[in-house]
Amino acid sequence: MNNPVLVEVLRGTLVESRHTGAVAAVDADGHDLLALGDVKRRVFPRSAIKAIQALPLVESGAADRYGFGPEELALACASHSGEPGHVAVVERMLARLGLGEAALKCGVHWPIHQASAQALARAGGAARAVHNNCSGKHAGFLCVACAIDADVARYMQPAHPVQRFVKDTLEALSESLLSQDVCAVDGCSVPTWALPLDKLALALARFATGTHMLPGRARAAARLREACTTHPWHVAGSGRFCTEVMQKFGSRIFLKTGAEGVYCAGLPELGIGIAVKCDDGTGRAAEVMMAATLDRLLNNDADSAALEPFVRPQLRNWNGIVVGGMRPTEAFRP
Amino acid sequence: MNNPVLVEVLRGTLVESRHTGAVAAVDADGHDLLALGDVKRRVFPRSAIKAIQALPLVESGAADRYGFGPEELALACASHSGEPGHVAVVERMLARLGLGEAALKCGVHWPIHQASAQALARAGGAARAVHNNCSGKHAGFLCVACAIDADVARYMQPAHPVQRFVKDTLEALSESLLSQDVCAVDGCSVPTWALPLDKLALALARFATGTHMLPGRARAAARLREACTTHPWHVAGSGRFCTEVMQKFGSRIFLKTGAEGVYCAGLPELGIGIAVKCDDGTGRAAEVMMAATLDRLLNNDADSAALEPFVRPQLRNWNGIVVGGMRPTEAFRP
What is the pTM (predicted TM-score) of this model? Predict the structure, then answer.
């Protein structure tokens, strides 16, 4: 079964491109609030669950032991743009652990933030592991490894205690069994487990509300949500969708992107978790799908106005001329 | 109607993402040789028809008048990566016309080629119009404008003689009427006209063979094909799909990418034109769709072996680990 077209890309008055996808929104008991497309199909959550991957960091006491504050926690949940301010926090995390940059096993890439990448090149610098968008998450994994006295050189392997904690946490929040046959390697070399889209939404609903969790985990979730929604720039970066939405909505929306068109959100006040998968893996369309979903679920004029630039973004060409835009399809109509 | 899934992206053993699309392959008389998905749906050809946009440059005698050789002609057909060698040819074209860089109205962006962009930043440079992937095409337009003594400041406007020549040429090759309601603005600010995918393939079949053309246009098409297939690096750049395929296949395959998942090819020896549209606009999948189409139409073991890296590319993560790959679906099976 093909999923429905959820986003259209216009050039002039014609539809130039089309994105299919699926959207699941559920409450913390797993009741469907919105289901577009095949919400039972497994998706790799990739970086969209970094905050869930960071739960053991807080729940274990590791973050407190090494003095990680809200900025460090936000970085542990981040797909950051590699701007100097992001790099500084990651370097601080490593320094607290007494580790050097070589301890990061995420791989090396240039900063996502173009101006930062250009400034780095202009200064004669080169890409380093701290610039990798996942470096904060990896510093968080290292923190857990240090706190439990585990091997810091192998923290990214599926059998390592750190990744076992992560898997157990994801299984509990999503009420899913994650067997080896749904495990693959993420862009930053840690395991990623595929789970049904509606179960991913369930995990977010629980992360957003703390329901059906032991008190220690619920407190950890609340601390991570607060760190992210009060430091949204640390979670992504300048001009990024996650950052801009959380800057506008504060504690009302926790939002996190993942590679290959995955988006997760939690709405604590409404008790809702959302998971979006753009079938083709395109971030631009996943953002519109998420914005349209938030618009439908929040369902009020003030929030609609705030979301409008994300629901119907304009597209400009290299001369700044508006040449088209993106829009959600009728599938989002109640 | 949704188009079929034509390409799957694997992570580990699971399908992570899916790309739908359409493929049309026709001969110069418009007979269908392959039709996957809705080949009657209009698509904006974008940069995939730069060689057709360059026909008036040669046919009018403008290229000869200003001494443009094969490198200049290949650049006029190029979506180049902004490497120093590309920029040098564009600057030479402008110098032949007695024009400065300000005459280019394509807009400014950093070189697509990352190492060139970094070297530029490292040297204290900044993005300029010559780095724009379309700057060679624009230099070609300017050449026509100079040769016919037309306004060089407005060459990108739909009513300008240069764009009228382009439109007339595309209409003739595609046997399509291109009215104002299917016209939009391209990324580099020139007009782009949407036409049915099978008509786009027809235009390529005629460009590839010179059939149903006056002799002067057929000779112009042959010169442009020869310029591109003997200078494939000039048409795209280091590591690019168009460049690597034309380096392997020489005059047997003319290949050109366009934005938003469009690809065009012409196979002179078989008399075939191909047009591909990846619905979601993703280049990675359009390349696999084109490679799989070429593989099917060429239909022999030696060519299959040469195309294999493009038909089933591996995906590596930031640590160089193979984490998955892409593959065409059963839809390509005869």
Answer: 0.97
